[in-house]
UniProtKB/TrEMBL annotation:
Pfam families: tRNA-synt_1. GO terms for biological process: isoleucyl-tRNA aminoacylation. Coiled coil: none annotated. The keyword Transmembrane helix does not apply. The keyword Ligase applies. Belongs to the class-I aminoacyl-tRNA synthetase family. IleS type 1 subfamily. GO terms for molecular function: aminoacyl-tRNA deacylase activity; ATP binding; isoleucine-tRNA ligase activity. Keywords: Aminoacyl-tRNA synthetase, ATP-binding, Cytoplasm, Ligase, Nucleotide-binding, Protein biosynthesis. This is Isoleucine--tRNA ligase. It catalyses: tRNA(Ile) + L-isoleucine + ATP = L-isoleucyl-tRNA(Ile) + AMP + diphosphate.
Amino acid sequence: MEYKDTLLMPKTEFPMRGNLPNREPERQNKWNEMDIYKKVQERTEGRPLFVLHDGPPYANGDIHMGHALNKILKDIIVRFKSMSGYHAPYVPGWDTHGLPIETALTKSGKVNRKSMSVAEFRKLCEEYARKQIDRQREQFMRLGVRGDWWNPYVTLDKAYEAQQIKVFGEMAKNGHIYKGKKPVYWSPSSESALAEAEIEYQDKRSPSIYVAFKIKDGNGVLDGDEQMIIWTTTPWTIPANLGISVHPELDYNVVAVNGKKYIVAAGLLESLEKEFEWENAEVVKTLKGKELEYVKAEHPFYDRDSLVMCGEHVTLDAGTGCVHTAPGHGEEDFIVGQKYGLDVLCPVDDKGNMTEEAPGFEGLFYDAANKPITEKLDEIGALIKLSFITHSYAHDWRTKKPVIYRATAQWFASIANFREDLLKAIEEVEWMPKWGETRLFNMVRDRGDWCISRQRAWGVPIPVFYGEDGEPIITDETIEHVSNLFREHGSNVWFEWETNQLLPEGFTSEHSPNGTFTREMDIMDVWFDSGSSHQAVLEERNDLQRPADLYLEGSDQYRGWFNSSLSTSVAVTGKAPYKGVLSHGFALMGKDGK
């Protein structure tokens, strides 16, 4: 195997001495011909095994200094171990599924996505990914990193996908996988749900509005002529409002001002008087939040009730202490709404446009709906104040555009089911630096359930069938069969074959008395892909072992690969996939752009 003439040469402002531009490739060609990696492995065979498991870079674009830093650090450790009495294989890997590859193809101008089937598009995605792997492999090898470069692991390989299906199946068998409609991060720009690891925060300018909700039924504690004031920076969620949350233990004042009576938290009254420029406000009654429970207010412009509920999530950090609650657009809203039996209203579609469930605003992009909704509130006298703020807001880390909370039917991994096992596993790992343990511990302690489904084409399909009654079917038999099919044919068969061809021969279910089945068309989160490598690589390959001795990546992977690998491994094996984790910093661009 010889290097091609297309190998990238390092850029430098200084002349390279000793004819290095020619001699370096010659030397590396010689190492390649000698198969240095194989010779080292043969020399150290039989020694105690040391496994540094490679976190897979994404197969898209040329490598950069961050890649170089990471790979060279790994090479230093692997070489040191192989010279210190260990057998230290190094198997590089690549992460190959996901939106960036879909986007690269569609933006190339050479692919008309709408003119082809899902299976045809996926084949183009695979071809693109493999070309990127070849390109990056040449560049990594130019760094002088020693490894099994011609036998790497790749997340789109058949054997890898087969093992990933088994990870999903085992998690489902253990009761950790479920489907539910609840608010998740939704990216209108990607038209897909996102996991926490796919979120980054950027500043965003948003409207800040205070809105009055008239009391309809005082439930024996209010006179009925009061109004509750809520605060929100997302006016577009007002059409989805179904309730108002108060803290049961906080004091709430009924304040008479300008001939009207408003309800706000007592602890915020002073600041709100300044905010609204109230003069001569008089407190006519004070109530505990729990006394306001089941009071009914009126939606500002729709003919429906807004139920007052008690929620522990209400604070005095900002707003009025009366929290606008839209169960279809917020995690805490959803939780309190479920407690009180509210619907999960979500009048926003996949593209971020308001639906017919938001009469008067249908078809408007959610962000564009802010202005007409605010104008409507002002028109009917419900708008107390409008201003604008710049605040940190969630964005899609790929498209760099804002995301929203949106209730959709998604597949989840229930972190709550095995959270204590995760925290225990973290404590048993050696962390370098030590603060890494605290960082991941806190993340796992505070994280919600993991949304693992994506509404995309390029990825590993979620191996779920549905009966005629709509019931999801996940059994040992179906998982084993799909895994074997993927190992033999690859996951594209999920999109090429008929559903009955994907099921075991003669399969029957009480959920389909007529023998008719359908299948899930969502794919798995790419973090589930790479997070399954402990089984798809460490268990699959004879030259490696689980748990690995070391994972070594940048510190951004506490919320990424370290986290997803831990979750899938503990869910399946009860243990962490690594004995030690070493995180490093980043290669930053200099002030002069170099």
